[in-house]
Amino acid sequence: KTSSEEHQCPNQCDELGICKIVTEPTAIVKEEAEYVNKFGSFMFTKYSQTFQRLPCCIKIPPYEFKHEGKHVHEVKKMHECDATCPDDLGEHVIEENEKNQNFHYCDVKCPNCAYYVGFDSKQFFLDTVHGNMLLTTFTCEEDEFEFEGHRLTVGDRGDFVLCHKACRHRHIDYCKDPDVCKSLTGGKKEGILEHIKANISPDLSRKKDYISHRVFWERTKFQDPYSRDDRESFKKCDHECIDEKHKNVDDVTGRDPIKSFCTQELFHAGLNPSSNPPGNVGYISTDGHHFSCENPATNIGDFHIVFVVDRSGSMSSGDCRPRCSNSQTTRLLHNHNNRLGAVYEAVYTFIETRKNSRKATRVGLSAVDRDITSLILFDNVATVVFENQSLSNTEELLNKMMSFTPTGDNLYHEGIKKAAEIIANYYDPKKTNVIIFLSDGEYHPPEPELRSLCQREANKGTPLYLYTIMFTGSSGYHAHWGQSLQKMADIATEYLPRSTSKDALKCQYVLAMNEIKLTEHFTQVAESLRKHQPMLIRK
Predict the structure, then answer these.
(1) Among 357, 341, 240, 251, which Cα is nearest to 296's?
(2) Which of 231, 350, 422, 436: CA 20 to 30 A from 175?
(3) For the VWFA domain, which residue ranges apply (predicted)?
């Protein structure tokens, strides 16, 4: 129907993009939503962004059904020069008219939370506020985990997590080119990515990478919402010093702990643990990370480490074998490709790890390593493989180990009696005595022999610390077998001085079901570790 008067166009703006986006936090719609997974449910705040396509602002002439040109929600006046304009042959006129064009927001959405861009699409990096990560799911190296106080599993949605608050040093994303990643040294490109060798959910068939904070936001094409300080922090490696003082509240002052992170760039090549630390400050961990704090391995004194290892006939089983992770231990494959060979490799790795962790002191100077080690093998009798040896020549110690093969029974008391004899022969009040006792089978705890040894050392003021390890393939393991080893650790604990310090050494029993777990137990004291935390990945 026509009108005799000028009238408003009834159509909406049809320019590309979005006419109006509500970006002010007070105007964003908030609602309480329920999150449900297999562990239960909880409530969270869901934020919704509103956007509008505005009505056309152009008037339709009298007696006409439509106006000329596009439907637009705003018409800008063309620039008119005055006395203040520069004499630049009209260049500023073009610039001013471009500013006065009908402005529209870009219609690109954040790939994680689906919020629209807050500026026009001429920018290379797009800016916006962010909302709930509706387009993501959780991925982690463990199937089940805890995140922000909630129990979750791989594949759970990221709905309750806010997009701009989920960042950290590293993210997980699908690998762009697995063949290229395989060609990288160590599968790493410093400051950019580290290829993940394992197949992790979701979509096990698709390879994935750890990527840096910077690369994560570059791939989204959105502007990084974090501060400059945060961005600088996220560039650094996220490995933490293992020292418990960085994790526990100070018992005296009540102050929160100060974490100590590796000083190198994220995904850096491992540093040589035998070299001086950068700037002669701090220490280099055995896995190649540099920390500016004091090496925790230099804070707990010197040790006499006594390995007491079961060499009975069952240690010839091939269900656990040496991993042969370096050129020295590959020799074990020939005559020791069995449980005992896996133990020899773990002992070798432990000594190497302990030795390297003592290489640098807080000021970067070479420390005098006064640790000594002894190895006893027991079957029906106990045999000393080496005693009171320094950690300096691990190859020679490995050669001595390889002279012995599995045989006989597993008489625990024979091993403890021989350990007591060696500790007495090389008694040093400045050294802490540690026994690492390992067996793959059942025998009653040598209570009289163990109590005698513990009491003797306690009377001297040099308490004994005992670690017992049950090492056996899962197919041949019976739960009650570990009871004797647990009892031995409990007995030794009775003779330790009372301590409220969380840093104090402890006696303990562990179960190592395979060669990998065995090596982990042997080396965890000196290793730098990073807590594996769950992350979000786009669906």
Answers:
(1) 357
(2) 231
(3) 304-529
Burial code of 157-187, b = ≥16 C-beta within 10 A, e = fewer? bbbbbebbebbebbbbbebeeeeebeeeeeb
Helical H runs in 235-387?
332-335, 339-357
The span from the CA of 303 to the CA of 296, in Å, is 14
| CA dihedral for 230, 233, 235, 239, sign (positive or negative) | negative
Beta-carbon contacts of 326 under 8 Å, excluding residues fewer than 6 positions away, are none
In 25-60, which positions are buried (b, 16+ CB within 10 angstroms) versus exposed (e)?
A: eeeeeeeeeebeeeeeeeeeebbebeeeebebebeb
- For residue 378, give the 3-state DSSP assignment: strand
State the Cα angle at 262 between 257 and 265, rounded to 5°: 140
Cβ-contact 489, 505 below 8 angstroms? no
Could you give the CA distance from residue 101 to residue 248 in angstroms, rounded to a whole number?
Answer: 59
Amino acid at 42: F
Q: Which residue ranges form the domains of the chain, and what is each CATH number?
A: 7-99 (no CATH), 136-239+531-538 (no CATH), 301-523 (3.40.50.410)
Q: Using the 8-state DSSP alphabet, how is residue 119 labeled?
A: S
* Cβ–Cβ < 8 Å for 492, 507: yes
- CB atoms under 10 Å from CB of 477, counted, come to 16
| Eight-class DSSP state of 165 | G
Question: Beta 136-139 vs 535-538: how paired, if at all?
Answer: antiparallel
Mean pLDDT, consecutive 10-residue segments, the chain of 539 residues?
Answer: 79 81 58 88 82 85 86 76 78 66 69 64 50 77 77 85 68 84 80 85 84 84 77 86 76 76 90 84 84 71 88 89 84 91 90 68 45 94 96 91 94 97 93 89 90 94 88 63 90 81 71 63 42 50
Does the predicted TM-score (pTM) go above 0.85?
A: no
What does the angle CA 390 – CA 503 – CA 262 come to, to the nearest 5 degrees?
A: 80
Phi-psi region at 178: left, alpha or beta (left = phi > 0; alpha = psi -120 to 50): alpha
Q: In angstroms, how far is CA 106 from the centroid of its own chain?
A: 37
**Distance (Å, whole) CA 367 – CA 372:** 15
